[in-house]
Amino acid sequence: MNKPVDETAGLSANERIKARSRLLRGSILEGLKDPLTGAIAEEDTQLTKFHGTYQQDDRDLRQERLAQKLEPLYSFMIRVRVPGGVCTPRQWLELDRLATSHANGTLRLTTRQAFQFHGVLKRNLRDTIYQINQSLLDTLAACGDVNRNVMCGVVPERSDLHAQAYGATIAIADRLLPQTGAYHEIWLGRQRFAGGEPEREPLYGETYLPRKFKIAVAVPPRNDVDVYANDLGFIAIEDDSGGLAGFNVCVGGGLGRTHGEEETYPRLADVIGFCRPDRVADVAQQVVTIQRDYGDRQNRKRARLKYTIDDRGLDWFREELQRRLGWKLDEARACHFDQSGDDYGWVQGRDGLWYGTLFIENGRVADRPDYPLMTGLRRVVEALEKRGRGELRLTGNQNLCIAALSDADRQTVEALLSEHGIMADRSGASALRRASMACVALPTCGLAMAEAERYLPHLVTRLDEIMAANGLSDDPIVVRMTGCPNGCGRPYLGEVGLVGKSPGHYQLWLGASPQGDRLNQLYRESVDEEELLAILTPLIRRYAVERHPQERFGDFVVRVGIVDNPMAFEI
Ligand code: SRM
Ligand code: SF4
Question: Whole-structure pTM over 0.85, yes or no?
């Protein structure tokens, strides 16, 4: 007798979990009801990611709990999907309320314009996600092997182009949303449909994508979403009259790597052509289907689109995309980015409205004894909500833009901010601090090898002293730190990148461009704080003396040969 063919033989463990999950159901619902543990079943922890939540444990308490023979202190991180980072005052207030009642009392703004809650206990998980949905936001596909939160540049000064780019962002996000009813059944208590056509996942299929998939829409001259770090990027191109002509399309970006495994690497996306605004969702859909069909389902470490493209070639990819689209992309148009990060303070958009961008250190909205940020923002947003005005835009650099205000609204907002000691540009912070960014890392991230969010502020204080001693207090250097090589704070696009290796030790990467179009390079394999400062002190001194006018640190270290001279690509 013939043995049944095992179609999953050779596939990664996650592929098998997805295949038998009944479109992401697994036994999540049963696990949530089990009062004997704060955790859910191992296999379900992979599935809940697709629903926007990760099981974590407090790593600060791991050893102590182990010694007491207690299970780890499990809790859940919830990521709220916010396409383009835009939410209403009412939604902000609802999330603020849930952060206090159901999580650890803070809100975390992420590097992809989403919100995260940390420390949600299993018994509160369902209700939290339910209430998030009640506010007309959701967590579906915020994580998992699907298209994630689609980013859109905030670009306050180009409010006209933002509106169109944001429209494209929403069209892409809607087109690529998974269709499984599991989300609604588990978190919203809806019944599994009875009768009719069997449920299907028309775009993704039963095993979804081989790996996560990321898309960003950028509006030059600002690359505030680091568009080239995405699997798929759209770059808005203006027509002669200042309107939107369409988008350059770029593919194959991604930053994650693994220490010691050279077949994994950060890669910037390649520009492959141009498309009209009404075609972005079609392009996105077909790029996703190529990755669905050709992405590596055996080795998760090489399962991102960047490897599919490197393994098969960019020409093959373009041909395959055009074949699936049934039309050809146009030639890419010339475009140029001036900078990657955010500018702070107030800007008047072309719509005549005001946009105020606030520096939120490492994206953590919390109340500290000397800085009641969470309360201050709550007061501001309550005032906007009362007037029915304004919106909140999370930036791709963990900051917040209070958007679309009249003169009078701006005055109210400014008064409330200053009442709480919050300066629009956080003038107390140095230029270097305002350009810095760290991932979450310890104590919640299960993959962290070193501190990041909790440590970078201290390190920046020490770097500030070196900058001040060289007369550079007003000069930004983009310093990005992560607790491991996965790259969540996009450290490989830092003029200075610090990547955790072990507690207190980091790889030092130098020389990314400040426009986000050139990766940095590994300069030292492992340094502690004193070694790092010993390296950077003379480099910064030399930069102060030898730099060209307006030359940025990342460009300087490349020009004088401290790191090799890779070309930033040009279109
Ligand atoms: Fe990330 C995994 C946090 C942006 C690459 N990321 C994680 C997890 C979920 C850890 C885990 O798998 O257990 C982290 C949760 C930490 C915590 O306690 O909250 C985590 N990533 C974050 C956030 C919150 C960092 C932040 O400080 O803001 C960002 C959330 C974005 C969002 O709202 O969706 C975040 N992650 C990124 C980025 C930056 C970006 O997308 O622009 C990257 C690099 C770009 C890329 O994807 O290549 C990134 N995260 C990763 C990877 C490596 C993926 C790879 O291809 O190798 C992992 C690990 C994995 O997927 O296995 C990861
Ligand atoms: Fe965790 Fe590493 Fe991502 Fe930092 S870079 S949040 S340590 S996975």
Answer: yes
